[in-house]
Amino acid sequence: MNIAKQFDTLWYQGASLAFVATVTGAALAIASQATGPRIAEAQARKTQAALAEVLPRNSFDNDLMADTVAVKDTNGRTVTVYRARKAGVVTGVVFGMENKGYSGTIKLVMGVDRGGRLTGVRVTGHTETPGLGDKIEIVKTPWVLSFNGRSLDNPAPAQWAVKKDGGIFDQFAGATITPRAVVNAVKRGLDLYAAQQATMLGEPAASAAPQS
């Protein structure tokens, strides 16, 4: 066996692989630079459309994506809040919540007006069972519309649950865990708004009553 020739062959193969990997990596980098901005722009349009969907028509005239504030929920998670303004006045806010469903995390956006009433809820991501849990999607059923106009006192706190748990919200046959998770997430979102209302609206917090 010609050892020198074998080493030459191994060196050539290694160099060829390295060259191909370098060229491939460069091509991917160039493609990423070319398509990255377009992907980001498409995602921004999708996000803005989802935000507008949970707000009343003509309730804002500002760029929602450019008017934001960050708050912390009770778990320490940073939540981005999008402010809706009309003639400079904040009319409501939109922010995302999430909860563990039957087969993964359910993500949603919710709109809340100044008085703490829900203006809309939409599920933006989930991995729930098709034909069962996916009924939380507006394109499948109008179930999420049952949140419209609700607030922390409508219904009473004990009734913020699916009917199986003594609440007022419908569950799905064979998929109670999924709507239960959404109801819980929306309720926590309203609690977050109540606790962070001043920050979300960009207004000074109410000062404590003077001591007598």
UniProtKB/TrEMBL annotation:
Primary location class: membrane
GO biological process: electron transport chain
Cofactor requirement: FMN
Membrane topology: Single-pass membrane protein
GO cellular component: plasma membrane
Residue(s) carrying FMN phosphoryl threonine: 176
Keyword Electron transport attributed: yes
Domain FMN-binding intervals: 101-193
This protein's UniProt keywords: Cell inner membrane, Cell membrane, Electron transport, Flavoprotein, FMN, Membrane, Phosphoprotein, Translocase, Transmembrane, Transmembrane helix, Transport
Any Pfam family the entry gives: FMN_bind
Documented EC number(s): 7.-.-.-
Top-level taxon of origin: Bacteria
Transmembrane spans: 12-31
Cell compartment(s), UniProt: Cell inner membrane
GO MF annotation list: electron transfer activity; FMN binding
Family: Belongs to the RnfG family.
Subunit: The complex is composed of six subunits: RnfA, RnfB, RnfC, RnfD, RnfE and RnfG.
Function recorded in the entry: Part of a membrane-bound complex that couples electron transfer with translocation of ions across the membrane.
Cross-referenced HAMAP family: RsxG_RnfG (MF_00479)
Name by which UniProt lists this protein: Ion-translocating oxidoreductase complex subunit G
Protein source organism: Azoarcus indigens
Encoding gene, per UniProt annotation: rnfG
